[in-house]
């Protein structure tokens, strides 16, 4: 099963010297309220994310293992993803490309200081 997503919040927790990741899921109930759930996530080797990072999964799959009680434990293996920061940078470059300027996203200073 191939998995893609937009705006998936990843929660990072340190446990016994290793970082574990979980994706937040929500389901809207009939009364309009939301119920939250989580599923474990495995990221590519040597990739680390800060807690509450939003990502867009571009390539991944769902798999499982059996725990000691022989219960199926599902998790998502993320093979490729982008963060929302990368997407915003791409969008900035696209906007400036439309106007024919050579300004790139890295040339912009988001922390402008005003003289007053």
Could you give a short description of this structure?
The protein is mainly β and 116 residues long. The chain has one helix at 84-98; strands spanning 8-15, 18-28, 34-42, 53-66, 72-83.
Explain what you see.
By secondary structure, the chain is mainly β. The chain has 1 helix and 5 strands. The chain has one helix spanning 84-98; strands at 8-15, 18-28, 34-42, 53-66, 72-83. The chain has a 5-stranded mixed β-barrel. Strand 1 and strand 2 (18-28) form a beta hairpin. The mean pLDDT is 81.
Overall mean confidence score, pLDDT: 81
Radius of gyration, CA atoms, in whole angstroms: 19 Å
Put simply, the count of helices is: 1
Widest β-sheet, arrangement of strands: 1-2-3-5-4
Largest sheet features: 5 strands, mixed, barrel
Overall spatial form: globular
Q: Termini, distance in Å? A: 56 Å
SSE arrangement, N to C: EEEEEH
Derived from helix and strand composition plus strand pairing, the structural class reads mainly beta
Number of strands: 5
Strand content: over 45%
Kindly state the percentage of residues in helix. 10-25%
Q: Which consecutive residue ranges, at least 5 long each, have pLDDT under 50?
A: none
Key features of this structure:
single chain, globular, mainly beta, 116 residues, 47% strand, five-stranded mixed barrel
Task: Note the topology.
Layout: E1 8-15, E2 18-28, E3 34-42, E4 53-66, E5 72-83, H1 84-98
């Amino acid at each position: 099963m191939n998995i893609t997503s937009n705006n998936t919040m990843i929660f990072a927790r340190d446990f016994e010297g290793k970082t574990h990741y979980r994706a937040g899921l929500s389901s809207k109930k009939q009364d309009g309220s939301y119920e939250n759930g989580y599923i474990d996530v495995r990221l590519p080797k040597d990739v680390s994310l800060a807690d509450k990072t939003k990502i867009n999964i571009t390539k991944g799959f769902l798999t499982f293992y059996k725990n000691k009680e022989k219960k199926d434990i599902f998790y998502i293996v993320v093979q490729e993803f982008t963060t929302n920061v990368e997407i915003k940078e791409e969008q900035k470059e696209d906007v400036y490309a439309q106007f024919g300027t050579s300004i790139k996203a890295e040339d912009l200073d988001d922390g402008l200081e005003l003289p007053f």
